[in-house]
Write a structure and sequence with these properties.
Strand order of the largest sheet: 1-4-5
Order of helices and strands: HEEEEEE
Radius of gyration: 13 Å
Helix content: under 10%
Distance between the termini: 40 Å
Shape: elongated
Number of strands: 6
Strand content: over 45%
Length: about 70
Amino acid sequence: RSVLGQLPVTGIPAGPGEVFDPHLHEAVATAPAARADLEHRIAEIIRPGWSHRGHVVRPAQVTVWTYP
């Protein structure tokens, strides 16, 4: 954290309900969605991600909803 505090890093947006973007997020689990419109959206944030000057340093690890 001390190294990240010295760099101009920003958090990667990964809130529940946001659309999953494989360039910014890493899906580490899936969860069943109750509705079709939730498919491919973030259900839960497992670990936050960081970017530095527009480049992903660490993708956000998330759970993604899937609809049967």
